[in-house]
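Hi V.,

Quick status before I head out on leave. The structure for the redesign project is tokenized and pasted below; the design run finished overnight.
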């Protein structure tokens, strides 16, 4: 069978029973929700502590690099729009071992992030409670939020996407108010803050900026349920990533212009900046943070469980995860399993210590996705009508891969060793699965 035929078999097997119902606005809203999450309410201060008023340059750099990656993902998604998103076409191009590692990196990092963001949201909601009630309120919040979002997504992919679209609008309002109100409170002298950042500071700033950008691949994991993917995916990526980069730069500049040197020490930079203008705006920013976290969780549970679903359909995870609901035609077992893992993580810890490692796992995935998309275009693979056919795809892929390698190089030795350990561990697990399934190996 030709490579093109193999890809077709992979797509048809994965997406059997699913309904293509997600349009460009819903997908763009999902990407916006998953990228503009809890990070934007905390990252500005961390960036200021690393490189001071030069932080917008790190944001622009990451925006350009991630933009190049988005072009590659748009190309790959328009050619092979299958559940699992980039995992799907990485596996199709490089084979099942690399695909399994990519899928593991993707869902492992995402479920940790989902647990961490859920824990942060629960802390915000439980904080006004009496000390002896905070932990029970926290647990109830975690179970209630994640459970409710999971149920909505089980009841239909269109409903899950609609939830993401609604929360996207609610999240945008406080951020828009921050930009508009803050623009009139900026002081030029606050950009003269001196920060002596070496290579370590620069590396930390770039990784933190990248952390604020990652997530588009999660929404693309529902590519098997996207209507007219050849046009929907590119339009949604261009709309969402372009607006996100502009928004991040404006937020960083305004926060620096209002708080000056105090920005680096702030634990709630947007809220602290608005407090200088009006206490009511400070409360609005705190509420906006909660809404943003809720929207992030909603978009994550819309996309990430599809990775487990796709792996199960490929025989790399228990088959039960590949089942679809008899009535709603959604991967209900994968959604419930993912939600349960997130609940456990959120209830027992925080994602803070693993944030950089999660970011580093994404750099590997992005690099592999860029290369896979370029190879798909070279081979002329197209299963959803006319593909994007981006003229400078090679340059975009080279930019994306080079940018990711730079970010890995800027990480600490311990962080890089942790990334290598995760990759090697998932590869060994894959080999173990194959050794326990001799009939599958023999027939492949």
């Amino acid at each position: 069978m030709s490579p093109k035929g193999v890809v077709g078999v992979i797509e048809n097997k994965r997406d059997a029973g699913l309904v293509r119902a997600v349009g460009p606005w819903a997908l763009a809203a999902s990407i916006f929700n998953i990228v503009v999450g809890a990070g934007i309410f905390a990252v500005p201060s961390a960036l200021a502590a690393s490189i001071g008023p030069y932080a917008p340059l790190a944001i622009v750099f990451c925006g350009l690099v991630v933009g190049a990656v988005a072009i590659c993902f748009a190309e790959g998604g328009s050619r092979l729009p299958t559940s699992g998103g980039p995992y799907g076409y990485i596996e199709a191009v490089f084979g099942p071992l690399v695909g399994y590692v990519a899928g593991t990196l993707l869902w492992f990092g995402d479920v940790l992030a989902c647990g961490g963001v859920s824990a942060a949201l629960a802390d915000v909601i439980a904080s006004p409670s009496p000390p002896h009630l905070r932990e029970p309120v926290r647990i109830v919040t975690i179970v209630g939020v994640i459970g409710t979002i999971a149920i909505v997504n089980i009841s239909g992919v269109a409903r899950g996407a609609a939830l993401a679209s609604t929360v996207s609008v609610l999240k945008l309002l406080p951020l828009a108010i921050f930009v508009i109100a803050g623009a009139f409170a900026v002081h030029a002298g606050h950009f003269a803050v001196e920060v002596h950042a070496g290579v370590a500071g620069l590396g930390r700033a770039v990784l933190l900026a990248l952390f604020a950008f990652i997530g588009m691949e999660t929404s693309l994991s529902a590519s098997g349920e996207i209507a007219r993917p050849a046009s929907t995916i590119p339009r949604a990526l261009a709309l969402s990533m372009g607006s996100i980069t502009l928004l991040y730069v404006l937020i960083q500049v305004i926060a620096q212009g209002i708080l000056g040197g105090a920005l680096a020490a702030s634990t709630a930079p947007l809220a602290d900046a608005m407090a200088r203008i009006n206490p009511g705006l400070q409360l609005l920013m705190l509420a906006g943070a909660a809404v943003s976290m809720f929207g992030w969780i909603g978009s994550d549970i819309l996309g990430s469980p599809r990775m487990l679903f796709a792996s199960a359909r490929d025989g790399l995870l228990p088959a039960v995860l590949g089942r679809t609901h008899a009535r709603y035609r959604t991967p209900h077992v994968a959604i419930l399993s993912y939600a349960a893992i997130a609940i456990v993580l959120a209830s027992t810890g925080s994602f803070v210590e693993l944030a950089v490692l999660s970011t580093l796992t994404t750099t590997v995935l992005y690099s592999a996705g860029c290369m896979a998309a370029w190879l798909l275009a070279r081979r002329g693979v197209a299963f959803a009508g006319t593909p994007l056919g981006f003229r400078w795809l090679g340059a975009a892929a080279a930019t994306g891969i080079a940018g990711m390698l730079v970010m890995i190089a800027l990480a600490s030795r311990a962080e890089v060793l942790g990334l290598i350990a995760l990759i090697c561990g998932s590869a060994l697990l894959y080999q173990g699965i194959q050794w326990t399934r001799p009939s599958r190996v023999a027939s492949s």
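Above is the designed sequence. The chain has 19 helices and no strands.

G. will cover questions while I'm gone.

Best,
W.
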